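Colleagues,

For the teaching module next term, I've prepared a clean inverse folding example: a structure given as tokens, and then the sequence designed for it. I'd like students to try predicting residues themselves before seeing the answer, so please don't circulate the second half yet.
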């Protein structure tokens, strides 16, 4: 492991920690910004790499003056030469509207980006974490989804750039592990929500909350009977850290997500209840290849990481609603709160 910048630093409470230099790609995004914050809080140096495709400076501006934080504007499809002790590879658009906007770039980010970060990890002989996704299961025939299920993915549909890009990235991680003895950690992340989601990225939680707070109709795609299992961001970040810090033989893939499953209709009703909004529901066509159900089996995470989510959906929604409420009341710079709709995807992909 590269150690030139390692030092032992006193953390809060006087305990001694092993201070590392950690690279986070996609660090200006929703999950990445929480990860940057958490690792800085633990006393590490953080190098955040992002091309701001879906990330925002607002997500990390409070970290900009921090002595142990560094931001590099860079596209991971190009090689990157830095000296670090660990890598978290999160760079990739995650919402269907964003990843379908430029599908070729999405595949490049996931495949070329993975190759470059794996090449970097190989040169440095350092540990590397991959933010994979429940989308590798596609529209699953096994329910709930376990890690040994190989998935049901359309290789040529509108979601394929993301699903197959992430699947290929997993292949690359395991081939670098087998071929070059690289120390890898692969997390399959299920739907995660919380403060700093982009208000216009079209994901269901942010859409519903912004609709409810602005009094617009809540857009339910299909009849709302499809299911998802929603994990609060703090729980997810804790799971990622536990996986990264697990013993070498724990490579994953490991599911990280909240096993409580909800229909999209139930989510809409809960958002109305918690916000006290008068918004009505409007039913729009279901996007192509939209998975009908999704629920993680987290037995492996419980067993190997001693991890399980602790934040109930209602509580996490309250925290997220508070965030969007504040953003709406101050009016975030440059962000128009016009909510993205799945119908705009077909405009981009035609
Ligand atoms: P996000 O869109 O908020 O963050 C992704 C970040 O990657 C953005 O800051 C974006 O600008 C950056 N990025 C995109 N392409 C890049 C490139 N070529 N070079 C450098 N940076 C680039 O999404 P998120 O929800 O924070 O997701 C982070 C990661 O977690 C993604 O890899 C995503 O696939 C994965 N994931 C997220 C979820 C979820 O529910 N949030 C679920 C499964 C997997
Ligand atoms: N790479 C990088 N930073 C490094 C080392 C490698 O970005 O510090 C990239 C480089 O572009 C290379 C890719 O990672 O093409 C894969 O590296 P690897 O050593 O596996 O393959 P090779 O260099 O033989 O193509
Ligand atoms: N969805 C919805 N209304 C919206 C946005 C999304 O009904 O305004 C649905 C979408 O069709 C899907 C689910 O909510 O069934 C989750 O969508 P999201 O884009 O958040 O994530 P993913 O489909 O990748 O799980």
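(Answer key — instructors only)
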């Amino acid at each position: 492991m590269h150690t030139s910048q390692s030092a032992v630093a006193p953390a809060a409470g006087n305990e001694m920690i092993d201070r590392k230099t950690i690279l986070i790609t996609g660090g200006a995004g929703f999950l990445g910004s929480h990860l940057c914050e958490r690792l800085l809080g633990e006393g590490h140096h953080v190098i955040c790499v992002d091309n701001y495709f879906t990330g925002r400076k607002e997500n990390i501006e409070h970290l900009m003056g921090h002595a142990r934080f560094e931001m590099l504007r860079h596209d991971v499809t190009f090689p990157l030469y830095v000296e670090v002790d660990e890598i978290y590879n999160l760079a990739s658009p995650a919402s269907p509207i964003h990843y379908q906007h430029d599908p070729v770039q999405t595949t490049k980010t996931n495949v070329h980006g993975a190759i470059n970060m794996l090449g970097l990890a190989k040169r440095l002989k350092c540990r590397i974490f991959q933010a994979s996704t429940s989308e590798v299961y596609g529209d699953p025939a096994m329910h709930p989804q376990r890690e040994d299920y190989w998935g049901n993915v359309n290789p040529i549909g509108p979601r394929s750039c993301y699903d197959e890009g992430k699947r290929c990235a997993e292949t690359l991680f395991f081939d670098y592990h087998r071929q070059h003895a690289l120390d890898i950690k692969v997390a399959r992340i299920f739907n995660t929500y919380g403060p700093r989601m982009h208000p216009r990225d079209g994901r269901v939680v942010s859409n519903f909350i912004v609709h409810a707070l602005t009094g617009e109709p809540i857009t339910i795609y299909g009849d709302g009977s499809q299911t998802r299992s929603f994990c609060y961001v703090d729980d997810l970040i804790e799971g990622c850290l536990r996986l990264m810090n697990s013993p070498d033989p724990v490579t994953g893939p490991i599911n990280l997500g909240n096993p409580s499953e909800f229909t999209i209709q139930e989510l809409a009703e809960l958002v109305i209840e918690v916000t006290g909004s008068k918004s009505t529901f409007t039913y729009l066509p279901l996007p192509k290849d939209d998975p009908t159900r999704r629920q993680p089996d987290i037995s492996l995470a419980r067993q190997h990481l001693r991890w399980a989510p602790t934040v109930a959906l209602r509580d996490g929604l309250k925290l997220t609603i508070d965030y969007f409420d504040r953003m709406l009341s101050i009016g975030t710079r440059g962000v128009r709160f016009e909510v993205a709709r799945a119908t705009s995807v077909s405009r981009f992909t035609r």
